[in-house]
Design goal:
This protein is of the alpha+beta class. Helices cover about 70% and strands about 5% of the residues. It is built from 19 helices and 5 strands. The protein is globular, with a radius of gyration of 32 Å.
Amino acid sequence: MKTLRKIILLLFLAIFFEALSNKEEVVSDTTSFSIKLNDSILFKRFESINQIYKEKKFDLALKSAFILLDSSKNSSSEIFFRTNYLIGNIFYETSSFKDGIKYFRSNINNVLNDSIFLDVNVKYLKNKILLQNYLRLGSSYHKLNERDSLKIYKDSTLYYYKKIIDFNDLDDSFVNTKAKTYSNLSALYINDKAYDLAKEFAKKAIEINKLNNNKVNEAGALGNLASIYSIEEDYHLAKKLYLEGLELIDNDKSPKAIRFKASLYANLAWVMYNLKDYKAYEYQEFSYDIKDELRNNEFKGIVRRINAEYDVNTAKKLVLKEAENKQLKNQRTFWLFGIGSFIVIVTLLYGLNYYKLRQKNLRLQLTQTQLVQNQNLEKIKSESQVRILNATIDGKESERKQIAETLHDSVSALLSSANLHLQASRGLFKGETPVEINKTQKIIMEASQTIRDLSHTLVSSVLLKFGLKYAIKDMADKYSNSQIKIDTRIGEVVRYEQNFEIKVYNIIQEFINNILKHSKAEKAMIKLDESGGLLYLRISDDGIGFDKNKIINKDGLGLNQIDARIQMMEGEFHIDSSKKNGTVIKVVLPILEKEPINLV
């Protein structure tokens, strides 16, 4: 009987992980199975839950999976193993990476400790299962490290990626896993500014994907390598690699290829802008068109994922509650008599103290009512002050934008026209042109340059043309000098509603101005990313820090005024600073999307 169970388990696992190896990305859907045992109720229940998972109904799938996990623990190791893995995948898909890690680790422990895997004849299968779980664990810690930048997460990421790289007896079916690991390591080292290591792993990923004719993943790896050269300001080589990647997936209409195209076009636009090749605008529009289409197609899916992320935790608590209720039900008879006796005693005590408690409660209610009224008055006063302050700031921003547009579109155009008329008047003089005309043209050219500089100071032209991502990079380059180096780490942000972009840019600029004026820092970092309809901003420096409780507002936007601005944008604002320990500023803002274009 035990031998028969081992044969069935090996057959199931072989089909299960063969399905995993046929997936385009090893960290995507890993629960498509072909085993069907009509006589097994547990297998039928699992297939039903797996179908719910594939429909992205994560809350319902998780609730049923927990119940099935408990049912199969002592009756079917096959179903227990599959359900354990499915739960880990649900947590990964809903960004609950810490919860998912527990289940992927459990799977690895099962493989390493189960006697069935000690047989040398199943070494290939054992390695395959371990690789899949190592990559899931490495990817989970990688996501946590990107979000929180903690050393323990980075160390764990490298630990599990190294586990994959150290496999030397891999056949062709394992190579894609190794290539994915190399690409992930390249992205990790890019963020750490270890560019030599990042290049090494990007080239390894390109080589493997080229040998396997995996054009989509090869394009992604080429994009990683090109980004490194772009950071190092080798724009010509970066442009060449971006174009190679785009050529590989030019006719590929898969969702993954389309996402890569959007990223490659955006980065190519930035490189060409730095090369003064203004075809960059055309490529930038390609990128925005693709991203807008993707966002429109995936908007409902994003909403479902956000709701599911909340419902996953609710479902987990519900399952645990049901188990607790089941245990309490077995003890209900015993407790019924005790609870009844307790109620009688409490009722007697309550009757004796009722009068005193009633008097005390009345006094407390009066005090609370007065306190609530005072709090409401303070809240109304505070909200009014915030609205007045933000109306003032909005007016200033609108006025700055209007002045900048007037200078650029009207005054600059008038000066150009005057210069053309003077140039034409030169032809009217048969002899030497009067010196006054030459001087007048020189004055007009200086005035035009001054107006362009002033217009850019009022509202960044890079912000208006390219958006937050490139405007922030431009700000960092402009403010960096021999005394302070300002770096940026910006995720996949897109174009938003213009006034929203201006507000975010001005907030970042004010924080950077404060760093330049007061921090005495040598290094600063601006991090910006988008997730779940929110914009996450993190600005840090290694300066002298300050006691934020003693800061006095000065000219411009003080900390309290920035806080008021963020409140009106319904965001969150937090400062972590102390003397001699630098400063970390975190801001979370709900995104105001760009108005969609209605085509007729």
